[in-house]
UniProtKB/TrEMBL annotation:
Keywords: TPR repeat. Pfam families: TPR_8, TPR_CcmH_CycH. This is Cytochrome c-type biogenesis protein H TPR domain-containing protein. Residues 92-132 are annotated as: Disordered. It comes from the Eukaryota. The lineage of its organism: Eukaryota, Rhodophyta, Stylonematophyceae, Stylonematales, Stylonemataceae. The keyword Magnesium does not apply. One of its GO terms (biological process) is mRNA processing. TPR repeats lie at residues 145-178, 282-315, 316-349, 351-384, 419-452. Transmembrane segments: none annotated. Residues 307-418 form the Cytochrome c-type biogenesis protein H TPR domain.
Length: 492
């Protein structure tokens, strides 16, 4: 795929290449002026003219992009986003689309700083033989904003989160109704260390521009849920359906929330209502099936996974879910078939590889096959704590305690607050008779989750084996009042 070409500092590249010639400097100021005024068609024409006159400009702009840092992006007064020479949008959606975006009503009123003053629109249009039409410009602004957002996604995938954030912010400044841009901005805010409150503030800002966007209300509901504000979360979901009762994503998220609260009948009603609006939504069947599996309704879960596969026979996650049901039913051959179908569609899915390894370990008892799958999963995601912990359990079972400890330590390094990883290392150390260190680890896990049944049970078992029966009884007694279960049904 062709790398998006940056319009980041075309004017500066022009000046650098031509030694600051007066004509070039004038064009540079003109370019920046029209960036400031967001005259997209004029900017496009200037770029096309530049590339046609001097082929060295294009690589110079590329070089300029490569040399930029997130800090420069945040402070530069140049045009701080990137688009293709001929923008083509893959995912521009209007209100009601999956992006949650509405139709753009024009650029934001916030100005972008610029040095110098350029010619007005009429003069440049005359020079270029291009007349700017207001409605066409409005449409082009949405196109450009979407390309900025796509560029932000590219940087986010590369781990350049600060730069991605700047690009998302620029996209929504240019097109305030770009729903996906606001959602991307809220998500990346969390990834760079922001709180749920920070992300919620971003979405509420978005709602001031597009108060009838059901997807933005949905996002508010999820964030309020994360903050523990259950009443507000329900109100946000209700708002989303008030503005668009056909949005299945709202039904799914609200139903998932109610299922987590134990309101299974209400969750089922929401899922059922969602199917009325879109009976071909495989995501809905997947989410509903997971809920039924978690409450022990394996048969119903299997039916729902199969319904989803009727809609999309190649869906990796539905095949994976069906395989998990087969694992719970102790049907290893059926489980292996389902997992292999999932891997045929997505060979590098670490979650499916984990589940297949789990099945080989606990159902088929094929430890060599499990090791191969663990190694393959870790090649894809070396920081997967679930894979590392389960791999550690296999090595502990085979009495390879040093290797088991190393894997558990690697899991803790990847996720220092993962109680499953901490408990696993404690168990390994208990078998190595490093009881003092094991006690520290068990206490650390309980400090993280004071009602962690597994921590009390494993600690009590260690003390019983060590002959500390009184302490063991006290710890095991705690299991009866501890309800925290860290091994929930696997996330699909």
């Amino acid at each position: 795929m062709e790398r998006p070409l940056g319009w980041v500092s075309l004017g500066r590249a022009y000046v650098n290449l031509h030694g600051g010639a007066p004509e070039v400097c004038r064009r540079s100021r003109t370019f920046r002026s029209h960036v400031q005024q967001q005259n997209v068609q004029v900017v496009s024409a200037l770029c096309r003219e530049a590339f046609s006159e001097d082929a060295d400009v294009e690589p110079a702009v590329h070089e300029d992009i490569e040399s930029r840092t997130p800090e420069m992006s945040a402070s530069s007064s140049a045009f701080s986003f990137a688009v293709d020479k001929s923008p083509q949008v893959d995912e521009i959606m209007t209100a009601g689309g999956s992006s949650g975006e509405g139709e753009d009503e024009g650029p934001s009123g916030e100005e972008i700083s610029s040095e110098g003053e350029g010619d007005d629109v009429g003069d440049v249009a005359k020079d270029l033989g291009d007349v700017v039409n207001g409605e066409d410009q409005k449409q082009d602004i949405m196109v450009v904003a979407e390309r900025i957002r796509q560029e932000g996604k590219t940087y986010q995938e590369q781990g350049k989160l600060v730069l991605a954030k700047e690009l998302y912010r620029k996209a929504v400044e240019l097109a305030p109704k770009l729903g996906k841009g606001w959602q991307n901005l809220a998500r990346v805010e969390r990834r760079i260390g922001g709180s749920a409150e920070d992300s919620l503030a971003i979405i509420k800002e978005a709602l001031t521009h597009d108060p009838q966007n059901s997807y933005l209300w949905l996002t508010c509901g999820v964030l309020e849920q994360e903050r523990g504000n259950k009443t507000q979360a329900r109100e946000m979901f209700r708002k989303g359906l008030e503005y668009d009762r056909t949005q299945v994503a709202v039904y799914v998220s609200w139903a998932r929330f109610e299922s987590m609260e134990g309101n299974y009948d209400l969750a089922r009603k929401l899922y059922m209502e969602g199917t009325k609006h879109d009976p071909m939504c495989e995501r809905l069947y997947h989410s509903w099936a997971i809920m039924e599996a978690r409450v022990g309704n394996a048969q119903r879960a299997e039916e729902l996974f199969k319904q989803g596969l009727e809609v999309d026979p190649k869906n990796t996650y539905l095949w994976h879910g069906l395989g998990r049901i087969a694992v719970e039913q102790n049907k290893p051959e059926k489980a292996r078939y389902c997992f292999e179908k999932a891997l045929n569609e997505n060979p590098d899915n670490a979650v499916v590889l984990y589940s297949l390894a789990y099945m080989e370990l606990y159902r088929a008892k094929d430890y060599d096959a499990a090791r191969r799958l663990f190694d393959r999963a870790l090649e894809i995601d070396p920081t997967s704590t679930k894979v590392l912990v389960l791999y550690s359990k296999l090595e502990m079972h085979e009495e390879n305690f040093a290797e088991a400890a190393a894997l558990a330590e690697q899991a803790i390094e990847a996720s220092p607050t993962d109680s499953a990883a901490i408990i696993q290392l404690a168990v390994v150390e208990s078998f190595r008779e490093n009881h003092s260190y094991a006690r520290q680890l068990f206490k650390r896990a309980i400090d993280l989750h004071p009602r962690n049944m597994d921590a009390y049970y494993r600690w009590g078992t260690m003390e019983w084996r060590a002959g500390n029966r009184e302490l063991a009884n006290k710890l095991l007694q705690k299991c009866r009042t501890s309800t925290y279960n860290y091994e929930q049904y696997i996330d699909f």
